[in-house]
Specification:
Pfam families: F-box-like, FBA. The chain is α+β, with helices and mostly antiparallel strands and 245 residues long. 20% of the residues lie in helices and 30% in strands. Helix 1 crosses helix 3 and helix 4 runs parallel beside helix 5. The longest helix has 10 residues. The protein starts with 5 loop residues before the first helix and ends in a 5-residue tail after the last strand.
Amino acid sequence: AFHIPVDILEEVFLNLPAHLVVSVCRLVCSQWKDVADSESFWRERCRRNGYHLRESSKVPSDWRLFYFMCKKRRNLIKNPRGEDELQGWEIIRNGGDGWRIERPMAPHPYTEVQTNFVTSFSMCSKSQLIDLEEEGYSQAFMDEFQPHIRVSDWYAPRCDCIYNMSVKLLHSNKGVIQEFTPDTLYLPEQDNQTWKQMIHVFKDYGPGVRYVYFEHGGKDLVFWAGWYGIRLTETCIELCPTLDT
């Protein structure tokens, strides 16, 4: 019925939810579609949301895809604190009296963390395999952007104990592209009021990453019946396409 100046129309779209711009606005007419599909619109949307490129030389071929992948950032680990018991985890070893869920002995730095896993007097370990395509990260996105993959795990001893962790980036055939497997940590009892965080960031790993395999666990070194081993919680794996600010 009437023509809206492009700059005004773009400003209106920038103040609407992105999914409505794609699923509704771009279907109205050819002018609206052109604005909703334009590179300048999605570049500006990224700028206003603070989604900055890690390297200015690596410009996305699809800014809309880049925007939605940045917006999708979240923890890909299921049940990271044990709030749903052991749901989502594959138990590799369940030694001694096995895995248990309990309330933290000492407050966690994140006040929302009110549960943790704890191990027993023989080795306990559990794992998750993350299928990136099932989580919405397409092969094309992974190969072009190669977003940083940030891994973190919170741990604390109850008595003298050990802690193990291993993370692997896998090809479609489950072959290992990169891995992070730090040495076993031996933790003394006197640190049992202190939560510590293991962090690793995968960078420049090349094309082909389709899965992330995560495993952690441990045991106590006093061999007491019950649950006196390593305590674990708030495990997190995130894909980070943008520069963290």
